[in-house]
Amino acid sequence: MRDAAPALRVLKKRSAFLAVAAHRKRWVTTAFVVQAAPQVSGGDGEPEGESVPVIGLGLTTSKKMVGKKAVDRNRARRRLRALAREYLPLWAQTGHDYVLIARKDALTLDYERLKRDLRWALGKMGLGRD
């Protein structure tokens, strides 16, 4: 029997995003940049009750990286959010926070390529799991 699927915890505070960036572990793909850092215990928003494995997720879509149109930034954010919610629990190591920073190609690349890029980036950073 396989362990329970890890829960996703959304990073909301700027300090959490800065902590992940300060760890300086990142990988750049065509459509996004993946940043990762180990979680600090007692983080904000952790699930209560049983000790459920947790993965932190933050998304960033900026005018500089994606474009000036809010429609484009929102679309990139929706695509990366769907990708992360579906595949981070399967492929990423628990006990880490991940920030996905959208790039312009996040709007146009097909979903299969986004999946491949995410799995590849996690493997290259040494944070993938089988």
| Number of beta strands | 5
* Helix-residue proportion: 25-40%
Distance N terminus to C terminus?
A: 15 Å
Spatial order of the strands in the main sheet? Answer: 1-4-5-3-2
Query: Please, how many helices?
Result: 3
CATH topology: Ribosomal Protein S5, domain 2
Overall number of structural domains: 1
Q: Report the major sheet.
A: 5 strands, mixed
How confident is the prediction overall: mean pLDDT?
88
State the CATH architecture: 2-Layer Sandwich
The succession of helices and strands, N to C, reads EHEEEHEH
Structural class, from helix and strand content?
alpha/beta
Tell me what you see in this structure.
With 130 residues, the chain is an alpha/beta fold. It has one domain: Ribosomal Protein S5, domain 2 (2-Layer Sandwich). The protein has three helices and five strands, in the order E-H-E-E-E-H-E-H. It has helices at 14-22, 70-91, 111-124, and strands at residues 7-10, 25-28, 32-38, 54-60, 96-102. A five-stranded mixed beta sheet has the order 1-4-5-3-2, sandwiched between helices. Helix 2 crosses helix 3 (111-124). It starts with 6 loop residues before the first strand and ends in a 6-residue tail after the last helix. The model is unreliable at 45-50 (pLDDT under 50).
